[in-house]
Amino acid sequence: MNESMLFHNQLLATKFFVPSASHSLIARPQLTALLDQGLRRKLTLISAPAGFGKTTLLSTKVQSFSQKSPEAPRVAWVTLDEGDNEPVLFWTYALTALDTLQPGLCAPLLSYLHMQQGPTPQLRFVLQALINTLASSTGQFLLVLDDYHLITEPEVHRSLTYLVEHLPPQLHLILATRADPPLPLSLLRARGEVLEVRTNQLRCTAEEVRAFFKEVMDMHLPWDLIQKVTARTEGWLVGLQLLGLYLQGHTAPDDLLDEVSGKQHYVLDYLMEEVLQRQPPPVQAFLLRTSILERLSASLCNAVLQQKDSQDLLEFLERTNVFVVPLDGERRWYRYHALFAEALRARLEQTEGEAMSALHLRASQWYAEQGYFNEAVRHAISAGDWPRAADLIEQGYPYIWGSSEHGMVRRWLEKLPDEVIRSRPRLCLGYARTLYMDSPYTSMERWLNDAERALRAMIQNSANEISEMGVSPSYARPEWNNLLGEIAAYRAFITGYYLGNGPATLAFCQDALAHLSAQNFVARASVAYARSLAYHSFGDIVAAIQSTREATALAQAAGDISSTIPYLCRTEYSLLVHGKLHEVVQVAEQAMLLGTTLAGLPHPMVCWAYIHLADVLRQWNRLDEALDCALQAVRLGEQAETIVALYLGYTELMRVYLAQGEMDAARTAIHQAEAAMAKTYCGPYRRDVYVIVAWVQFWLASGAMDRATRWAEELVQEANMSSPLAREREDVARARILLAQKRPTEVLSLLEPLQVIAEQQERVSHAIEIKGLQALAYQLRQQEQEALNTLAQAVRQAEPEGYIRCFVDEGAPMTVLLSRLREQERKQGPTPYLDTLLAAFAPFPHNDQAETQLAGGSGRSNEPTALLIEQLSERERDVLRLMEQGASNQEIAEALVLALSTVKSHVRNILSKLEVSNRTRAVKRARNLGLLPDKP
Length: 936
What we know:
By secondary structure, the chain is mainly alpha-helical. Among the domains are: 3-202, Rossmann fold (3-Layer(aba) Sandwich), CATH 3.40.50.300; 206-277, no CATH class; 295-338 and 349-384, no CATH class; 560-672, Serine Threonine Protein Phosphatase 5, Tetratricopeptide repeat; 742-840; 849-928, Winged helix-like DNA-binding domain superfamily/Winged helix DNA-binding domain (Arc Repressor Mutant, subunit A, Orthogonal Bundle). The chain contains 50 helices and eight strands. A five-stranded parallel β-sheet has the order 2-3-4-1-5, sandwiched between helices. It is globular and about 115 Å long.
């Protein structure tokens, strides 16, 4: 079953209904005119305590639109409840409501929202696409979110703030709430983008009070009494309704008014008691016991109350104006006025508190029978029936665990007693999965231990029972055996991912495969992925690639796109180490294509593909393209809050800036990488092993030798818990520090065994790097021929895949060695690859002083544009102006309506004509030439 369809089917249609009045309403033209004014702004906020007619006002206004011209906005309505504090559910309701106005409008966004895994939904992507979709629409839409005060989840508030701040003119938002939401209201006020309707504006005037009693309650009160009623109730609409119900049959209204003076809660308590007591006993019982329901239908009420006359009672309450609101034209669904329902529930708890669990339980059973899984779970939890709640959550296991409903499931489990979860192995496993990426390894491990302990106890108990019956016991039920495999599979994954412990990971993999069914493709794919992590930690890169390809095939067979993409990206990483740069590009393009949804949105895991593609493009010295990819990787990582991808993405961004000679930008990027790494839950496993070589290169290039040596000293003092491959990376980083300290003998001693193992394990990229460092060390020892021989080996390995930066990044000493190698090799014939490498050592200056000299003098040059060998075209000047603003190639293409390839060609031409190596220097030289204005 499709997960998004399953979840969509859980939506309560009644939450989309615009409440309709059960009686005639008084006209309030000043308020409806105010709402008309609000439509010209981004947001209308109706904020007032309960009972002031917020929903009535809105529903009346919304229903009036259908009587107007086609220019009137189409209205999407959602009545919120406490269950909507799950961000995915909240936006599912909002997008579905909009989609009903124009079928298909939000369908791709809903599909994208529910295809994701992990604790954090990618709401920013969804909302960006929604904004763009609406901005291209010719229609006008109005989204009403009623009862917004029930939303307390910060992520929902943050995402709604983003929408409000970027709201296109085609959409207007109305929030009805009892309390101001945590939105930037001050800023919106300052910009004139919000209309606020508050308590004083909602209070009924004396004229409206008279109209209410005459038209709604069919009561004619003298004017002096009307004024007294208005003063006593302070124009509180629900107070007027309660008062009207009470006055029916009473002949001394003045006495009553003296009784009800005071605060609103006192008026409510007093009049509620009076109104409730005047109802027939069956009606009182009905009101109290159905108050646990957020929405009422005859079938649901009959099930909860175990009776058959609920439809008659609902219609009676509607006829007598006892605070029921019909939700549809057919009078099948109703709800109580919120304030009335709260008072009823409080009274029920006081008088029949022991009955509430049974009532919630029957509601849970009814919702389960109707197929409303979410509501069934919520009522089971409210009933305190933990076994039933646990049963329901387990029944949803095939569709909800690890999906976009991740956060909702975690909240449910947190409401269950720990002992209930620990007695159910599947719930323990599920809870461990919900902790992924935002909790330490030890937290997940504890729940996995509990899962295995509970499951083995169940297996043993079953075996004992069968044995007592004299039947030969089987090891376990097939589903139990498979569950043991799933537990071991998840152990393998988190051990490989968090700890980098290859032997333990492989042991868990073997255990998992011994129990998993042949048809459990998803779990088997996870095992294959975990194996790849283990092989990679050993440095066995060929085996790692084979395992990730197996994981990819199994995930594709299961239709699990959300896993297929990260498995492909892991294959890219292993291919990078293997030295297969062209294959990396092919697999990255495959992942990007697979990760682009119908809505045109990138799957969050595609950030990894951009990181690896940026690495290849940087290695090929295509730095502008590499920069675009690295920036996109960082954007995706930031929006997806994928922390590991973030610090790797920022590290790659730093390497590109460093290659361009942009030291300040590189420094900013590495600081961001360090900040992201600080947020990881990596346990004892050193996460910096993936980036430490690049970071040491930056420290050395920026003159931070003390930072580099301090890292090396800390490494010696720490207990070595790294994997073999991690230790190699650490040793290569140390070798770079020793080389900078002019200690070549120690460098060679350290690198020799690493080079042998890298060759044996076919880690070509590492072998090339190590040989380059060995060549530089031989050069320091004045062993030129050994240096040239070693460098020649590195060049031969690098040439088929076109490596460039691994040589260029070593700086001037490598230039000298490559030049001498070319002289030596030219005796045998042409040397096109060496020519390419030496040409990549840009002759352009790498500091501001040299840049000034290039400009023709000291200080600001006023050299005429005519000094350019070739003038910039008008289109190139347009591109240059956008480059000055920091626009990426993609953003330039969108702004100028050009193909991306055309923009890249223009950028290359600009750099060539200005005789510079990167964008920053292009902008600086353009200012010197007067092509761009100076910065103020």
